[in-house]
Amino acid sequence: MSGDEGVRGGPVPDPATITAMVEVAARAPSLHNTQPWRWRFDGRRLYLYADAERQLTSTDPLGRQLVISCGAMLHHIRTVFADHGWHTDILHVPDERHPDRLAAIEFRPWSNPPASVHTLARAVEHRRTDRLALHEPQGWAELLPRLRALTAAQYVRLDVLDESVRPQLAALSRKFATLRGHDMFYDTELHWWAGHSDGWEGIPRTALASEAEFAQVGVGRVFPPGPRTARRDHFADRAQLVVLSAVRDSVPQWVRVGEALSAVLLECTAAGLATCTLTNITELPDGRDLLTGMISSPGIPQAVIRIGTLPIDDTRLPPPTPRRPVADILTLADQAAPAPPHRRNR
Fold this sequence. Notes:
The protein is of the alpha+beta class and 346 residues long. The chain contains ten helices and eleven strands. The protein has helices at 15-25, 64-83, 115-126, 140-152, 166-181, 184-193, 211-215, 251-270, 285-294, 326-329; strands at residues 3-5, 11-13, 37-41, 46-50, 86-91, 101-109, 156-160, 240-246, 274-278, 300-308, 330-332. Strands 5-6-4-3-11 form a five-stranded mixed β-sheet. Strand 3 and strand 4 (46-50) form a beta hairpin. Helix 2 (64-83) packs across helix 3, helix 3 packs across helix 8 (251-270) and helix 4 packs antiparallel against helix 8. The radius of gyration is 20 Å and the shape is globular.
């Protein structure tokens, strides 16, 4: 733990620690790897802001997934701070004077965090989105109660979908891909952010499934096809499908959905499982209505997660997707506002 005295006398992490933790936590997942977050440290509190310039206005017109992505980053950063001896107190209430401000973090020294914190912090760096077919998750019966407890702490419900609904969701994925393929703006966003290998953002082509590989999965967003490889095209996906649902649609609730999502992904990664977050089904009313009929609890479906086990002959981690430089997403109290972030020409 490395700290300074804050502007009001309380111990806080020093700027070097703040910078290092933000850089590590930026491994958090986000829609199309847009990384739509900004941070500002004022010497006492660390503030999280939504970066509206990174909103995908056709895919995510309400900014719901943008805020969920920021919530995932918030949970990631709490995890890595805890591993370095800092307890974080979160203020979730938005500030009317700063509508893009989603949360504020205050710090307290934490001399003896549990060993599980270190395990989860390691998972931050090891987690990947796996878009290929997976086997059934090992140890699922023991893991599921922990996942439900983690999401309940954020007032988010986790429901397990029955295997029988998989064909319906696969058909809906194909239907939505066809419908949205006629939307020029959606198609432009998708091809802008997916399939590139340069820059600090977006989904590299190597992280996408080929047509043959995606055919074995079925449930998910139809991306531009990845390289013609045969990594896992010889067996059908048997990943467990779970749904995260919120009690209402609101910005504070979406932040909590993101925190719950992060908690599930890290817990699964720590358990040796692979995951893939699916939001294409919840982007359109028909998809959310269908999911609502598939779950037993009241709530508004926000995301589906595939959770499974890697085949024993393919346990290598895929390469990490790119991330923006920390200087683009963090401003310290004694610094000027960051320069406009690097963006590829559209």
